[in-house]
Amino acid sequence: MSPAAVASQDTATSSVVEQSVPNPVYLSTEPGPEFDWKISLRGKVIAITGANRGIGLGLATVCLANDALEVYSLDLFEPGEEFQALANANPKRLHYLQCDVTSEETVIQVVDQIVERSGRIDGMIANAGMTKHQPALNFDRPQLEQLFNLNVYGAYFCATAAAKKMIELGIKGSIVFTASMTSYRPNRAAPSAPYGGTKGAVRNMAHTLAMEWSQHGIRCNSVSPGFVRTAMTYYVERASDWNLKMQYYGGMPRLADPKELGGAYVYLLSDCASYTTGIDIPVAGIVGAW
Questions:
Q1: Fold (topology level) of 38-283
Q2: Where are the beta strands (DSSP E) in the chain?
Q3: Cα gap 70→205, rounded to integer Å
Q4: Concatenated DSSP letters for 20-38?
Q5: Are strands 45-49 and 123-126 parallel, antiparallel or unpaired?
Q6: Among 133, 157, 183, 274, which residue has the fewest nearby CB atoms (within 10 Å)?
Q7: Which residue has the higher pLDDT, 115 or 33?
């Protein structure tokens, strides 16, 4: 084939490709003239994965305190007394839907349920996760798969299911991922290379999806907590060398209450963050500063 024929063929192919890709229709996130500049979740329906306890329950508490219309906890396990107490204090505003976030089909079904019950979904916090602290050479393949299935694939399934529904409904929604300071630097107090790897993936995922979905008015961000007091971490500050380890970090020498993270999430979920997308907010008591 002659060079001219090749060039002609390439041009024709390029023309076909260009014609087959429609120009994107951008759904602006710009506030309208009647915009309420108060940071609030008033009227919003928020889904939080893993909100029956720990960080997720703390986030649910703060979302409700900031006037969220309804909060749904998507969790694999039945809720306990703390969740029930919060539900009793917020009648008809806090709900539990059983969900295995590692199953994409299940996640899609649950997001559909939320919309069937509440008519909309405005925010998704992809928070469910797990960690395992041990030397890297001690991890076997099943342990690695368990971490990545929950922390990475689960977060991805939740984000994509929520985004598809938001696009379908024309909602300029917000998706917030729970990353970790271990996505920036090693955790000397409790090292876990695979866990840090999963959270690095989550943080990058948030940035990339922010770029892809901005045309639909959907914002994607992440929050990176430092040391947080949960059922999985309470023992850390009881270790005999805790104070010594905190000297290395140079941060606040304590674990955070899960609710202390809530302000960052509420901001990112709120309409006041209409021009905030593709970022990570460290909430870590200065842990992680270089």
A1: Rossmann fold (3.40.50)
A2: 45-49, 70-75, 94-98, 123-126, 174-178, 219-225, 280-283
A3: 27
A4: HSPPP--------TT---S
A5: parallel
A6: 133
A7: 115
Catalogue the E-assigned strands of 117-210. Answer: 123-126, 174-178
Q: Angle at Cα 39 formed by Cα 219 and Cα 172, nearest 5°? A: 30
pLDDT value for 240: 72
Boundaries of every domain in the chain: 38-283
Distance CA 13, CA 15 (A): 5
As a whole number, mean pLDDT of residues 111-138 equals: 96
Element at 257 (helix H, strand E): none
Whether the per-residue pLDDT at 111 is higher than 80: the answer is yes
Select the more confidently predicted residue: 10 or 273: 273
40 annotated active-site: no
Evaluate if residue 84 carries a pLDDT over 60. yes
Question: Has 199 been annotated as catalytic?
Answer: yes
235 is an active site residue? no
Q: Which residue has the higher pLDDT, 277 or 187?
A: 277
Q: Which of 180, 183, 224, 270 is catalytic?
A: 180
Taking Cα atoms as reference points, which of 207, 217, 222 lies closest to residue 167? 217
Q: Which of 72, 96, 156, 195 is catalytic?
A: 195
Out of 44, 183, 199, 214, pick the active-site residue.
Answer: 199
